[in-house]
Automatic annotation (TrEMBL):
Gene Ontology biological process: sialylation
GO molecular function, one term: beta-galactoside alpha-2,6-sialyltransferase activity
Recorded topology in the membrane: Single-pass type II membrane protein
Name this polypeptide is given: Beta-galactoside alpha-2,6-sialyltransferase 1
Gene: ST6GAL2
Reaction it catalyzes: a beta-D-galactoside + CMP-N-acetyl-beta-neuraminate = an N-acetyl-alpha-neuraminyl-(2->6)-beta-D-galactosyl derivative + CMP + H(+)
Keyword Secreted in record: yes
Biased composition (Polar residues): 75-99
UniProt keyword list: Disulfide bond, Glycoprotein, Glycosyltransferase, Golgi apparatus, Membrane, Secreted, Signal-anchor, Transferase, Transmembrane, Transmembrane helix
Assigned EC number: 2.4.3.1
Gene Ontology CC entries for this record: extracellular region; Golgi cisterna membrane
Pathway assignment: Protein modification; protein glycosylation
Subcellular location(s) of the protein: Golgi apparatus, Golgi stack membrane; Secreted
Length: 466
């Protein structure tokens, strides 16, 4: 028996060694798979982004061309999720992107991967296809079905707006398809937005005004930063800053911001709007044929990439281009070449480009005053225009930004397109912007309901001292 026992002993040891080898092999396979899914190069954005704040601000969300430059607000340094990975770690298909240094200068270059950018493009295209599918489905409905669906969405929007007027609306009140769009953009986080700032409790309207005054100072490109300084833009941009255009230290007494919302139709607000000293309008919103409702005075017009053709139009108003997300060398629409040509052809027409830092500072203030995670996309032109006029005016009256009782899903008074996202937001954090504006509002509920009018103090009219 002894020899037999001695022969079995090494066999059992071999079996144990074999089992250990197999277990080790499975462990290595598991770790390889895990590292594949957690690799920052494989940016799949599988979970909603956790918005955190960093001090370094980026202008680096790139798509397409290696020489593209476009603005992205905040550099993400947290390693808690794939969305928060620094794309410069990728070893594939590097692209150069422009960043803001901590003092706001456009001087720091960073690398962004082609692979990451393709993922973003594919996901954005998926969101666009889904919205287009809903529109087509709407077009294929019977009239009765469409009336029922539109009536349901409009009634739901009206409930949200009623709560918005009271300052207590939330994203959970939105229609399901708007909530889904919001989640999609949070997951996508195209611009690598991060927020680590303190979420403030409910500040008073005055406190929010003072925060905006201190944290979101109006700023336009002055041509002294790269790459514009190398192109002699310091001699191309208007010589006088926008806030000094009407005289050193001068402020308009009373100003109007006129949105393009469909609710302004049949408002008969035209005469009141024209009574203000300065009027701001958006993009290609016309006044001809709508004078009774929107007036015809225009002092400043904000345009964006969607209305890039306005650069070549005969408009003579002061133009402000909100282009923080557009590329410099290869934009979706060529903005900068027409800008240069227009400045050379019409050197006396004031034409400014808003600095990306100003736009993303506005986003910071909105998120900091909101307990929910807002869309990690830039604020709407409406909110940008409101704050711009608060920098130029002692008092600002905003029409149909928060809808009156004439509320409709008609996006623009001069177009036939209906979508509740135009009022409550999908891409832009519109709902949260409007909640913040309502908190600062000093107008009565009667003005809000009948005129859709919000009244705000300009920054020069408030004392933010101790």
């Amino acid at each position: 028996m002894t020899p037999r026992s001695s022969t079995m002993t090494p066999t059992m040891k071999q079996w144990r060694q074999l089992v250990l080898v197999v277990m080790l092999a499975w462990l290595l396979i598991f770790l390889a798979l895990l590292s594949h899914f957690l690799d920052p190069r494989d940016v799949d954005l599988r979970s909603p982004s956790s918005l955190t704040h960093t001090e370094t601000r980026r202008l680096a969300s790139i798509q397409g061309s290696p020489s593209g430059i476009r603005a992205s607000p905040l550099e993400v340094t947290s390693s808690s999720s794939p969305t928060n990975q620094d794309p410069s770690h990728s070893q594939q298909g590097k692209q150069e992107a422009l960043e803001l240094s901590q003092n706001g200068d456009l001087v720091v270059w960073k690398k962004v991967s082609d692979q990451e950018e393709r993922v973003y493009q594919e996901r954005e295209e998926k969101i666009r296809r889904e919205r287009l599918r809903r529109r087509r489905r709407k077009g294929s409905m019977s009239r009765a079905e469409q009336r029922g669906r539109d009536g349901y969405y409009l009634s739901q929007s009206k409930v949200v707006v009623q709560q918005l007027r009271r300052g207590i609306a939330s994203a959970g009140m939105l229609a399901p398809h708007l909530q889904k769009s919001m989640r999609d953009y949070l997951n996508l986080n195209r611009h690598h937005v991060a927020y680590r700032g303190r979420r403030r409790g409910r500040q008073s309207g005055r406190e929010v005004l003072c925060e905006l005054k201190e944290q979101a100072r109006l700023r336009t490109l002055d041509g002294t930063e790269q790459p514009f300084s190398g192109l002699a833009w310091d001699r191309l941009v208007p010589p006088r800053p926008l806030e000094q255009l009407w005289g050193q230290g001068s402020k308009f007494k009373s100003c109007a911001v006129v949105t393009s919302a469909g609710a302004i139709l049949n408002s008969s607000l035209g005469r009141e709007i024209d009574s203000h000293e300065a009027v701001l309008r958006f993009n290609a919103a016309p006044t001809e044929g709508y004078e009774n409702d929107v007036g015809n005075k225009t002092t400043i017009r904000i345009i964006n990439s969607q209305d890039h053709l306005l650069i070549d139009s005969g408009i003579t108003d002061t133009l402000v281009l909100s282009s923080s997300l557009q590329w410099y060398r290869n934009p979706d629409y060529d903005l900068f070449t027409p800008y240069e040509e227009r400045r050379r052809l019409h050197p006396t027409q004031p034409f400014y480009i808003l600095h990306p830092k100003f736009i993303w500072q506005l986003w910071d203030v909105i998120q900091g005053n909101t307990q929910e995670n807002i869309q990690p996309n830039p604020p709407s032109s409406g909110f940008i225009g409101i704050v711009l006029m608060m920098s130029l005016c002692e008092e600002v009256h905003v029409y149909e930004y928060i809808p009156s009782l004439r509320q409709t899903d008609l996006c623009h008074y001069h177009e036939h397109h209906y979508d509740p996202a135009c009022t409550l937001g999908a891409y832009h954090p519109l709902l949260f912007e409007k909640l913040l504006v309502q908190r600062m509002n000093s107008a009565s509920q009667h003005d809000l309901k009948t005129k859709g009018k919000v009244t705000l103090s300009g920054f020069s009219a408030i004392n933010c001292g101790p």
